[in-house]
Design brief:
It is a single chain. By secondary structure, the chain is α+β, with helices and mostly antiparallel strands. About 35% of the residues lie in helices and about 20% in strands. The chain has two domains: about 45 residues, no CATH class; about 230 residues, BirA Bifunctional Protein, domain 2 (2-Layer Sandwich), CATH 3.30.930. Strand 6, helix 8 and strand 7 form a beta-alpha-beta unit. Helix 5 crosses helix 7 and helix 7 crosses helix 8. The radius of gyration is 22 Å and the shape is globular.
């Protein structure tokens, strides 16, 4: 990284350090750097007092509890698990993932992720971690196999979302990976799986919140054809419509060919996102591998009136 690429805060910090400190630290073996950072942390923690902990608890957006009632959250997520098809494997993810899990496969800046001192990062998106798990499982399958995974997890993100928004929140995520058989058939099959599940969830948990599914095709005429002749005919057309969103640009370059969006309140409240990616293709080294990810913020679902009811 050149000096011109540093932020103002980074330049200020490095300017206060002894000459050559940055190069010396960058050149340390990973284990030695972790030892150094842990020593610094131990020395700093020795000066922390109970009043400091209370102050940070009040002021630090990373550590403040979520506002949601955990009983309502548990009930909604339990219902989502029950609605999940039996051939989707549930995965209880670790709170941390290998450092670079997001930025290595997706165009995500590392400064949006909380990196630890032990070559790990706090989970910021369960779809990235599930893609790694899917790629690992796909390596042990025949080419005709496929993997469908789900996880419910609280994630932490470093970027400031503004007043009223928590730095951490729960996502219910799906990731599917299967080998391409040509003509967009694999992509269509995965899209039907995910979209049908989200239709079922929204119709069951938030029917009065005017839920919607949206789809955008990014310069991929074959997927556009499969949406028309395969995906839409396979989906229920009444309670939760699938709407075209041709003007969407967000996600272009992140998603590969097609993006999804889940909304409520007639499209004014975003509940989730998703799309086709090249993640498992890159993780397995097989360009024929296709991957679809999607997720929904369960706390937002509750906020718009989502409820497990008596089911």
């Amino acid at each position: 990284m050149d000096g011109d690429e540093l932020s103002d805060a980074e330049r200020r910090v490095w300017a206060a350090m002894p000459a050559g400190a940055r190069a010396a630290l960058a050149g340390l073996p990973a284990a030695d750097l972790r030892t150094l950072l842990l020593t610094v942390a131990r020395d700093r923690v020795a000066r922390v007092r109970p009043a400091d902990v209370v102050r940070r608890w009040r002021e630090d957006r990373f550590v403040r509890p979520a506002a949601v009632d955990p009983r309502a959250l548990a009930a909604v997520e339990a219902r989502m698990w029950r609605l999940l098809p039996a051939d989707v494997d549930g995965v209880e993810l670790s709170p941390v993932a290998p450092v670079g899990t997001c930025s290595a496969v997706a165009p995500v800046a590392q400064n949006r992720i909380v990196t630890t001192m032990r070559a790990a990062e706090v989970l910021s998106d369960p779809t990235n971690a599930l893609a790694v798990e899917a790629a690992t499982r796909r390596r042990n399958q025949p080419p005709t196999g496929e993997v469908h995974l789900a996880a419910a997890h609280r994630v932490l993100r470093a970027q400031d979302f503004g007043s009223g928004f928590s730095a951490h929140f729960r996502l219910f995520a799906l990731v599917s990976s299967a080998r391409d058989v040509g003509s967009g058939i694999t992509e269509a099959r995965l899209l039907v799986r995910h979209l049908a599940y989200w239709q079922t969830v929204l119709a069951d948990l938030a029917p009065s919140a005017a839920p919607r599914l949206h789809v955008t095709v990014f310069d991929h005429p074959v997927i556009r054809e499969r949406l028309t002749d395969t995906v839409r005919p396979a989906l229920a057309a009444d309670e939760v419509p699938l709407l075209d969103e041709p003007d969407r640009e967000r996600g272009r370059g992140y998603y590969a060919g097609c993006a999804l969006r889940i909304t409520a309140l007639d499209g004014t409240l975003e509940l989730g996102d998703g799309g086709l990616t090249d993640w498992t293709a890159r993780l397995t080294g097989d360009a024929k591998e296709r991957c679809l990810i999607s997720c929904l913020a369960t706390e937002r679902l509750i906020a718009c009136g989502g409820s497990a009811g008596g089911s």
